[in-house]
Specification:
40% helix, nine-stranded parallel beta sheet, two-stranded antiparallel ribbon, alpha/beta, TIM Barrel
């Protein structure tokens, strides 16, 4: 069971101090948060992708590569990578590069994105979002698994004899989660490929997301990837913790009341009782999070949103300290109790390599310099080490 934190990279006014951080301050602050997440014992850090204010994370791979250089064990991911407005060729190449730089400590979560003005900025039409997401991922899936791809789809120019570079590390593509708030078609695609499904699990009752998770599990089994219990499920969530419930509510209330997503809406008490949001003591966070297992069954990844709505970096770092000291150890112990032995762990680079190659050494693609630049009729790679003095020196 993995535990992590994620950010949507919003730059929001702090309603307590009245100050709005600069983009530079938020970027530096989130880097500190990511590094500290590893220090207190979290397994995963993820950042979303946005191309409009008030968000700064237009280039998740750049940010995650920076975090990879400053951490040793933290798995890096996204919360979301836009499979719609991004060219799948760019996704294939950028995330393969990140995979190499992070030495396999990464995966990614794909989503459609629901900010309508962003689509035309990249020459896309939001009315085609769903077929665009399906078409683009079908191509991305091939680009990571086939050295040479011929492709003629509906939303981009055809590809003829195309090779995305670099090839995935150890010849194994990054693990992919498909994230959704409401779309069963995305859960269907995750199940079809045997990928993971990540339920947003924010801003709505758990029962809303349970319908999607159940559907994904059923279809995962239907496509022959394993039993429903063996499907790979991740959940979002949001927590604000203090030593006691009263302090937590008092400290978080001004941020809740002014939050762009749910501010000026329901009362904090009503929202916490009806949605996965937890505001309270460490034990209250533990109890509510353990309750997710009762609703969804055993799952592989639990992510917490901890830094949005204008919370200053200092406060978020303090939140991580409390979660790391008082919450994570208990959750790890309790989640491991009576865990269904059929339920696999969250996929890692190492487990994916073992699944493909067993005890054998994985294929290491090397450009075949002897075939020239205009390769036709086969792979531009050789599977054995090149001789000394080859054009690529490999």
């Amino acid at each position: 069971m993995e535990f992590g934190i994620f950010s949507v990279s919003d730059v929001t006014r702090d309603p307590v101090s009245g100050e709005t951080p600069s983009e530079a301050e938020r970027i530096d602050g989130l880097a500190r948060i990511a590094v500290h997440a590893e220090e207190v014992g979290f397994d995963v850090f993820a950042i979303g992708e946005h191309h409009n204010p008030p968000f700064f994370s237009s280039s998740p791979t750049t940010f995650l590569a920076y975090i990879a250089a400053m951490t040793k064990t933290l798995k890096l991911s996204t919360s979301t990578t836009l499979i719609t407005t991004n060219d799948p060729v760019r996704i294939a190449e950028e995330y393969a590069m990140l995979q190499h730089l992070a030495k396999g400590r990464m995966d990614l979560m794909l989503g459609r994105g629901n900010t309508a003005p962003v689509y035309p900025w990249f020459g896309k039409d939001i009315r085609s979002a769903l077929p665009l997401a399906l078409d683009n991922y079908n191509l991305l899936h091939r680009l990571w698994r086939e050295d040479v791809v011929d492709y003629d789809g509906n939303f981009r120019t055809p590809l003829q004899g195309f090779t995305s570079t670099p090839r995935p590390l150890d010849d194994v593509p990054p693990f992919v989660w498909h994230g959704s708030i409401r779309t069963p078609e995305i859960a269907e695609q995750a199940a079809y490929y045997g990928d993971g499904f990540f339920a947003n699990h924010l801003f709505a009752p758990s029962e809303h997301f349970l319908r999607l998770v159940r559907f994904y599990r059923e279809r995962f089994e239907h496509y022959g990837h394993g039993t429903q219990q063996q499907a790979i499920v991740g959940l979002g969530g949001q927590a604000f913790v203090a030593k006691n419930s009263q302090d937590a509510v008092a400290q978080f209330r001004p941020y809740f009341n002014e939050a762009p997503v749910y501010g000026h809406g329901p009362r904090l008490e009503d929202f916490t009782s009806q949605t996965p949001l937890t505001v309270g003591s460490p034990q209250e966070v533990i109890d509510k999070t353990l309750g997710f297992r009762e609703i969804f069954g055993d799952y592989q990844r639990q992510m917490f949103l901890v830094d949005h709505a204008g919370l200053p970096t200092k406060t978020v770092l303090e939140q991580l300290d409390l979660l790391g000291e008082h919450v994570l150890p208990v959750l790890r112990t309790e989640m491991a109790k009576d865990r269904d032995p059929e339920v696999p762990e969250s996929p890692s680079h190492e487990s994916l390599v073992r699944a493909k190659y067993g005890d054998a050494a994985p294929r290491q693609p090397r450009p075949n310099a002897n075939r020239g630049d205009n390769v036709t009729g086969g792979s531009p790679y050789q599977d054995t080490p090149a001789k000394a003095g080859s054009a690529f020196g490999l």
